[in-house]
Amino acid sequence: MSTLKQRLHADVVVHMKDRNKTALTTVRNVLGEIETREKSGKTPVELDDTQVTALLQKEAAKRRDTARIYTEAGEADRAAAELAEAEVIEGYLPEMLTPAEVEDIVDEAIAALRASGAELTRRQMGAVMKPVTAKVAGRFDGKAVSEIVRRRLA
Prior knowledge:
Layout: H1 3-18, H2 21-39, H3 49-72, H4 76-90, H5 99-115, H6 125-136, H7 142-153
Helix pairs in contact: 1-2, 2-4, 3-4, 5-6, 5-7, 6-7
């Protein structure tokens, strides 16, 4: 079992003891989503931390979108509940990188590829994205990373 899943399971007990209904319900829902994802398909799989992190990011984004919709509809109570759940989920996500940190990672990857004798143009964007994506992995928006790489290769 991945360490993030173990932490989620352990926190269920903690939230029960603390009588924190919002956190307890949220963590249980997330664990249910993980189990559903693991059991769907022809053969059951075990999600690793990277996959669990991606799932948590999607769940947090879902709740933020729902909160926005509730706010636009004038349902402030429901929006607040969704935002509270999103904050609980985001507590399990790794610390996000700043744009400056991502730019440094991109510059390092480009420098390493140029040092190995590679001629870099926009066509070799994939060669730059591969090592950058491995380092950034869930800590920065993928579209923003590709934009940074595209600007650097222009």
